[in-house]
Write a structure and sequence with these properties.
Layout: H1 2-21, H2 35-62, H3 67-72, H4 80-129, H5 133-167, H6 179-193, H7 197-201, H8 228-243, H9 254-257, H10 259-287, E1 293-294, H11 297-305, E2 313-314, H12 316-329, H13 331-338, H14 342-385
Antiparallel strand pairs: 1-2
Helix pairs in contact: 1-2, 5-10, 5-12, 5-14, 8-10, 10-14
Amino acid sequence: MPKSRLLLSSASGVLVGALVFGASPAFAQIAVFDWANNAVQVAIKAIEQTMSNTLTSITNQLTATGPLGTLLGSAQFGSVTALLQQGFTQNANYAKAQVDAQSQIVDGALTSNARFQRDIRNAGIRDEHTTSSLHCAALDSGQTVTVSGGQSWKVTQSIQDVADTRGEAGPNQPAFYGQSQAIAAIAQLHFARYCAPPEATAGLCSLSSTPNADQRASTLFGTGTLSGQAGVTAANDYVTNLVQPIVPAALRGDQLTSEVGRDASIRRHAYNARISLARQVLDYAVGIQSPSVPLNSAQQTQMQNEGLTPVGTGSWLQVLMLDANRRYSDVNYAAQLQAMPPASVNREIALELASTNYLLTQLLRVGIMHASTSAAHMAADVEHDFQPTAPLSTPNIN
């Protein structure tokens, strides 16, 4: 390379000097042979030869065996230009392949995320439509409440039918034969079932396991379910002592046909109606606590959790209290409620609203009874306070 540069510099200098200092115009009168022009031609040829040699030297240096070729490596697999072209082409191919690979990666990621979101949605739909165990328990409890409600009404009506016949002093009842028979019957019933220690000491009866149970409010109002038939009987006997322990004697024969007897009969009708209303209210209290429907294992467990003795058969009031207490204080219910999906929580709210409506209906029934008893009291008070101003003579009607 230094030698080539030196030759190029020398040739350039000769050419410039010839052009500047050796050029002279050609005249026709001068001899044909021009030494100056010949010198210039010779210099130009020398320059051309020098440049040709220089280019040849450069080309030789750029060959595979030259200095640059040696630095670039072996040309066994092609020329440098071809190798470079192939390299750039390969890099371009790599870039295109990378773009395609990135596209596939992105597409795969989007597809995977879409499937993941779909699975989440499917799981949500499944959870929203899967019935909770609490929902099943609420349905079981609701059915138990409904069935026991119907059974309690049957018990109430059965007790009421017997009590009304007794209070009216109907045939085959003690009061039908007289008030003393009615007193003897109620006393004998007490001695047979609820003999107290003073009575046993007096020799009137044998001491009972439930002395004076027919006089105690706890016989009627206990834990929610009366203890079988014996409990129902004791509660009914308490109601009898509370409302009508002694039944007035029946009006019979000419007592009903005389004018005074007709007046007494009408007053007895009013008495019977008011006694029947009072009995109905208390018989309802007996009926809703009478054992009328089997309790499932969950309800018995709930009773045990509340510190009560589990029973196999419960009353309407018992199952209703268990259902309310389960939602209010049961730990298992609270834990499951925490894990419920929104749809299950909405179903539970709907069931609680249904329970509220049911209770409001029952309160309406009790309210009607209470209003009826108040009306009866008011009527009795008005009748008692009513006094004619003076005795009136019997009018003559033509």
